[in-house]
Amino acid sequence: MSASAPGASAPAARGRRWKRPPIFIQRGWLRLVVYGGFVLYLALAISTVEVNWSRVAEGMERGWRFVQGFLTPDFTSRSTDIVKGFVESLTMTLTSTVAGVILSIPIGVGAARNIAPLPVYAVCRAIVAVSRSFQEIIIAILFVAMFGFGPFAGFLTLTFATIGFMAKLLAEDIEDIDEGQAEAMRATGASWWQVLNWGIQPQVLPRLVGLSMYRLDINFRESAVIGIVGAGGIGATLNVAMDRYEYDTAAAVLLLIILIVMAAEYSSSWLRKRIQ
Amino acid sequence: MPVSHLADRPIWTRRTTRQQFAAYAGWLALVALTIFAFQVMTRDTIWFFVQDAPRQAGDLLDRAWPPRWSYLDRLWAPLWDTLNIATLGTLLGILIAVPVAFLAARNTTPSLAFARPIALLIIVASRSINSLIWALLLVAIIGPGLLAGIIAIGLRSIGFIGKLLYEAIEEIDESQVEAVKATGARGSQVIDYAIVPQILPTFAGISVFRWDINIRESAVLGLVGAGGIGVQLNSSLARLAWSEVTVIFIVILATVVVSEWVSAKVRGAII
User: Fold this and answer.
1) Residue B64 counted as domain residue
2) What is the tens place of the pLDDT at every residue in B181-195?
3) Which residues of B touch A41 (CB under 8 A)?
């Protein structure tokens, strides 16, 4: 074990205790520089964090009220807002996942180097890169500015984000397929479409379905956030509840989000196991 | 083998008739549900605004270009804050996630019936709630500023790091644990000498990966008042100063690209 560490390769003098070799950086001075630099940065970073301690102390009381809100969540007094928010979020999640997956399939196929010609590949990869590099919330801001407030802007946001996610993973999946099956299809004289449908599609479909379920899960979580900038959904309800200092309603919304996310996670993992 | 008959000759088909119909019914149900959901969703949509969108987009682009580069001077301090939120938040997350992961892993948890479910609950709760929502809560509780952002990022990171780390702990090679135990090591020594060396590369990889995600997330935390460059973004949006928004977007994009590159390099070096 110690043989891999330089400096320990010479036979250790008798009576000396074995010392564990450093784990990350073997060169002593470099390790010192890296760790020292990191500590210096930390000191600098912490010193620039200005904390208004009296405000924090004041907030503790509110924090306590929030904890109490969690213990006695209020589902009833704002129930119409909560139901409206969840209906918007859930419909947004489903429609945007379906639309996003449908749009991502041609782009994903185009972004796979082994079946797409270079110009198509470049265009599709560019679409994927643009969609992936911006966060949902930033896209939501732009779409709200263009399409007005409400869940339609949220639907477009999540669809756009789904395209980048699904197309990238689908393209990587297609690039990783067993070429033998596609080759066998080609040997029968199949056209490009037939190779795609019979040689490639059966290999990637189970994972595509699994990834769609996973994306459904992500889209629901994101739908809870984009409401903060006006794109509809449960996030809007939550934001309003926080603005009104109604912590028990906010706690009810959060508990429902956690519950739905858990249910979605379990059912999607169950479904994925059954399909694969 | 499912077959269909055409002029009395068997032809291979992929599914039996029953399977085929079940598949059709499933797809039909999905399509119907999607259309229904779309209709419910757009009940209150004002289509005039949607039709107007191309014009709005053109107008937006018109005002957003050219970017007001002079605004860049006022972005360096918020950018530094954003980096600090991400880094300190990640460290906070790590600090809490490591013990939680050890409590959650089947092979290191002190009690399967009690500690493990609680640790798993912490992980799920932290993962289900986006850092922006954590920030929304924390800004209301402890007031706007960097601290709320750091804690929000930390709370969100617990679930991510905790989940991946406890899965790594469960997948370790048990024979090393046994070997160290056979030397008469204490419980803490077993963790130190048999488990930690096995999970350390994974742990470092996860942490750097989360740091990279946190940079993205901390860039927008300011929208709810939790410090960083998002505060600037929020005020520019409120003033409809789209040429400043463009500059901020470019800065965020550049930061994200750089952090992704750093994280890929570091992970490549570790693993």
Assistant:
1) no
2) 999 988 888 888 888
3) 87
